Backbone:
C-alpha cells in the first residue's frame, strides 16, 4: 500500500478542546477521515472510511462510549 500524503491536509480539532495539548485532530479526506494525536503530529495516523467514521460519530452521539453506562 502506498503512503498517503497528508502534507496538505486541513487538520482541525473540536472547538470544545481545552488547548492543553491532549487532543486529537481530524482531517476530512476524499477517501475518508484521518485522525492524529496533537502531542505527536508527525507520528501515526488512523484512517477511517466514510462508513466507519459515520458509525463512530453515530455511536458517540448515542452514548455508546460513555463510561457511565
Residues:
Amino acid at each position: 500500500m502506498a503512503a498517503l500524503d497528508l502534507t496538505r491536509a486541513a487538520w482541525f480539532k473540536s472547538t470544545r478542546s481545552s488547548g492543553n495539548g491532549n487532543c486529537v485532530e481530524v482531517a476530512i479526506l476524499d477517501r475518508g477521515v484521518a485522525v492524529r494525536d496533537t502531542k505527536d503530529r508527525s507520528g501515526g495516523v488512523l484512517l477511517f472510511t466514510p462508513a466507519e467514521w459515520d458509525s463512530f460519530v453515530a455511536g458517540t452521539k448515542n452514548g455508546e462510549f460513555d463510561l457511565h453506562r
Observations:
- The chain has a mean pLDDT of 87.
- Strands lie at 11-12, 24-29, 32-37, 46-48.
